[in-house]
Amino acid sequence: MAPSSNSRSAGAVLTVEQMAAAEHAAMVSGVSEWELMQRAGEGAARWVARMSGGRTVSVLCGPGNNGGDGYVIADFLYRSGIPVSVVAPKPPATDTAKKARETCVAPISSDGFPAAEVYVDCLFGYGLSRQVEGAFATLLEHLRDTTGYKIAIDVPSSIASDTGENLGPSLYYDLTIALGAWKRAHFIMPAMAGMGVKRLVDIGLDIAEDAPVLSAAPQIEPPAPDSHKYRRGLLAVVAGEMPGAPLLAAEAAMRSGAGYVKLLSEHSHPDAPAELVVEGGDLAATLSDERIAAVLVGPGLGRDAKARGKLSAALDAGKPILFDADALHLLDPALIEGGDTSQLAVTPHEGELAQLCAAFSIEGESKIERARALHEKTGITVLAKGPDSILVGSKGVRFFNRGPSWLSAAGTGDVLAGIAASRIAVHGDPQRALEEAVWLHSEAAHIAGPAFTAGELARTVNQALECFL
Ligand SMILES: NC(=O)C1=CN([C@@H]2O[C@H](COP(=O)(O)OP(=O)(O)OC[C@H]3O[C@@H](n4cnc5c(N)ncnc54)[C@H](O)[C@@H]3O)[C@@H](O)[C@H]2O)[C@@H](O)CC1
Ligand SMILES: [K+]
């Protein structure tokens, strides 16, 4: 029953089409759908058994193979001595689910909603294709209103796997057990917020290595023993009209690994910390310093002709650049034409991503499609940030788990930009830097506790670094 050891499904985040193709490939290679369902059902049942701790379990089964998994789970639990029953408003519609029901020794009823302490939702998986109605909707409403421990198998039964769209009664689960591979909905808001803890059951699928994946925690290298401030990375933060945002970014950057952070500004900054070097003068001349390893431009920049001139000077310097905030409203095809875009990165939120897509004539139905199209058209590494961040670069697509919701505060985007730019200055790899930045930002928020300010968050990043050394 155990999947083969050369399974390559770990971390992949698939569409329904990719999932069906992976399962089809397994069947072509000689693994039957029944065998896959056994692996999925038994793997999920082991989690359910562990979480139920002897409490009564009710399994809700739908007509497709998600329901089939439900019968396998119920059968496994029953044979393990756990008190379990099944509710299935309709009989199975697939041969494999029929076989699972015929094999299941747990008691099965077609109506009612049994009182239980643990509920396992197997009404619909990635085959959900329309609004949930009738008896299935009634079951989900009961499930929503009960106080029991709720487990979704593969995906919550009213959530569309590719888009995260809600197609029925909306409810919160304590645990969601993905089967074979993650689906996009597992990392799309607001669907992700209703899934509770997420776990993945490997069923031995062989998945293309370039498939999008869930980001794994980075390993951050401490400075080499012979490091000095320039070798550790000199970051230039280009300031503009508003002083606060670049200062926040610089505060975070100083605590994210760069050996030296300079604020390039024509204003005086009496509030700047003593460790931050503030440098005026001609921007193009200053940026020509070959010791500068990376440039951050955008926070507090402004959006007028002068700001555009600064953007242009930064691009002419030919360094790795991170563009954020106002810079994302100024970037266009003419500005980047002829440059090496592989060393450029952007960190747009939803609105800024829409702005970039308009500027670069890009269409896409979802955030991932827009981010991917922007990267493919420009070569720029794109972190579409938010509670459901998606990173697209030359190494492919990375999804992330949700960070603390306390991050929804003014200035936290400037902190993220500072961290990411600092990491670029350290090693020069924009995709790796952005991935590290998402983790550091999120971990810093955990450390900072509730209701932190952006400044407090920026001053916590060095503590977050310690978690990844
Ligand atoms: N195909 C495979 O090889 C495997 C599939 N597995 C399971 O199979 C699931 C996918 O199975 P299916 O493709 O059969 O799909 P589902 O079980 O998700 O449900 C699809 C069935 O429900 C019907 N349906 C869709 N939306 C409906 C709605 N709103 N109201 C009423 N009926 C609706 C469809 O017509 C179809 O009969 C996965 O999520 C996973 O749980 C696992 O057993 C692993 C192996
Ligand atoms: K389900």
Question: Could you characterize the architecture of this molecule?
Answer:
- The radius of gyration is 25 Å and the shape is elongated.
- The chain has 2 domains: 13-214, Rossmann fold (3-Layer(aba) Sandwich), CATH 3.40.50; 234-468, UDP-N-acetylmuramoyl-L-alanine:D-glutamate ligase (3-Layer(aba) Sandwich), CATH 3.40.1190.
- The chain has 469 residues and is of the alpha/beta class.
- α3 (65-79) runs parallel beside α4, α6 packs across α13 (412-427) and α11 (350-359) packs across α12.
- The strands form 3 sheets. A 10-stranded mixed β-sheet has the order 10-19-18-17-16-15-14-11-12-13, with helices on both faces. The chain has a 7-stranded parallel β-sheet with strand order 4-3-2-5-6-7-9, covered by helices on one side. A two-stranded parallel sheet has the order 1-8.
- The chain is built from 16 helices and 19 strands.
- The longest helix is centred in the first third of the chain and has 20 residues, at 33-52.
- α5 (134-145) links the parallel β5 (118-122) and β6.
- The chain binds ligand NAX and potassium ion.
- The site of ligand NAX has 30 residues, from α2 and α3.
- AMP binds at residues 385-389, 413.
- Residues 19-211 form the YjeF N-terminal domain.
- Its cofactor is K(+); Mg(2+).
- This is Bifunctional NAD(P)H-hydrate repair enzyme.
- It catalyses: (6S)-NADHX + ADP = AMP + phosphate + NADH + H(+); (6R)-NADPHX = (6S)-NADPHX; (6R)-NADHX = (6S)-NADHX; (6S)-NADPHX + ADP = AMP + phosphate + NADPH + H(+).
